[in-house]
Amino acid sequence: MERMLEGLVPKWVRGFKSLPPQYKKTKMKTNLQTRETIAKLNKSKVAMWKRVAKEFDKPTKGYARVNLEKITKVVREGEIALVLGKVLSVGDIRKKTVVGAFAFSEVAKQKIIAAGGEALTIQELFAKNPKGSKVRLMK
Question: What's CA 98's distance to the chain center, in Å?
């Protein structure tokens, strides 16, 4: 427990058997890459990326699960679909679409690439489109 709290809790608190209430629950993501991504998105001056960071900072249990069928219906030609969660493979994607998401099922990724589109992580999409133009958020 001490190794986990190192850097988060002052040294004088670490010796206690029971932690004071303000140090009991940390609402920080444990994955370093996820924390770095959230920090980069928060530093952006674009409101859309700040909203993505806020949604991304929530527990993964609350992340969206979006099927390809919904992406095909909602996203217009020339837009980028940004799924705040996981893309699942139900349905077909008929148009060349760039899709950014936290995660993809293997079949969904194959279908997107087969249709001539791109399957990008949120980090890759942020690097490719820092202004956030023509991005449609999907939940």
Answer: 15
Cβ neighbors of 73 (< 8 A, separation 6 or more) are none
Domains and CATH numbers, the chain: 29-138 (3.100.10.10)
Structure pTM? 0.74
Structure tokens at 91: 């349905």
In the 8-state DSSP scheme, what is residue 18? Answer: S
Calpha distance 96→93 (Å, rounded): 8
Query: Which has more pLDDT, 48 or 19?
Result: 48
Which three-class secondary structure state does DSSP give residue 136? strand
Other beta carbons less than 10 A from residue 106's beta carbon: 8
- Which residue spans within 52-93 are E strands per DSSP? 64-67, 80-88
Place of tokens 């993964």: 60
